[in-house]
TrEMBL record:
Record bears the keyword DNA-binding: no
Membrane topology reported for the UniProt record: Peripheral membrane protein
Keywords tagged on the record: Golgi apparatus, Lipid-binding, Membrane
Claim: Membrane is one of the keywords in the record: yes
Protein name as it appears in the record: GPP34 family phosphoprotein
Pfam families in the record: GPP34 (PF05719)
Main location: Golgi
Subcellular location field: Golgi apparatus membrane
Length: 201
């Protein structure tokens, strides 16, 4: 199991403290990929830019795709740009991968047999791994989950438990999620103002 898969299983298993947005999850999954690739020494972070290194196979198709998509020319890609680029469609890709691996199932409605239902984790080694990691308050998983509203901020200081490069990625995820929320609010205000104009208010 990888951090993105663990994070997705947690989002399906745990009631969030605020509504979970798919865009927020996609950004967090992209950040989780970077953190796992840091662990395999497939990249380093220098001045908030991603510098690719060796890319040994990870055994995970999506993580290998992430490593293959790293920008290898200088100047290297900033972490923030990676999150937005890699995050596109990533939630669906990981849901499909978990379903293909038998880690989740779809709860179907009896009266809508042809419609895909809610994704539900099955009892599996992958789910138990994610649950154990969650229960231990592991700092990376806890911080990513807090960024997208699955939990409050971790009690422990993540910066003291992980390296500087991982802290850089976690901070970039948090900033990107806040940026996306600000954009949602801006659009909601504009739409409300537009509706008021049509109503003559």
């Amino acid at each position: 199991m990888t951090t993105p898969r663990d994070l997705l299983i947690v989002t399906l298993d745990v009631a969030p403290i605020r509504p979970l947005e798919r865009g927020d999850l996609a950004l967090a999954l992209a950040g989780a990929e970077l953190i796992d690739l840091l662990g395999t020494e497939a990249l380093t972070i220098e001045d908030e830019r991603i510098v690719p290194g060796l890319c040994p196979p990870t055994g995970d198709r999506l993580l290998d795709e992430a490593a293959a998509s790293l920008v290898r020319q200088s100047p290297h890609e900033p972490v923030a740009e990676w999150l937005w680029r890699r995050g596109r469609g990533l939630s669906s890709a990981y849901l499909d991968a978990l379903e293909e691996a038998g880690e989740i199932t779809r709860r179907r409605h009896g009266w809508l047999p042809l419609r895909a239902g809610q994704a539900v984790p099955v009892d599996s080694p992958g789910r138990r791994h994610a649950t154990d990691r969650w229960a231990s308050d592991e700092p990376v998983l806890a911080t990513l989950a807090a960024a997208i509203g699955i939990r409050e901020e971790p009690a422990a200081d993540a910066a003291g438990a992980v390296g500087d490069a991982t802290v850089t990625v976690l901070a970039a995820v948090n900033d990107a999620v806040m940026e996306l929320e600000a954009e949602r609010q801006r659009r909601a205000i504009e739409e409300a103002a537009y509706d008021n104009i049509w109503r003559g208010e």
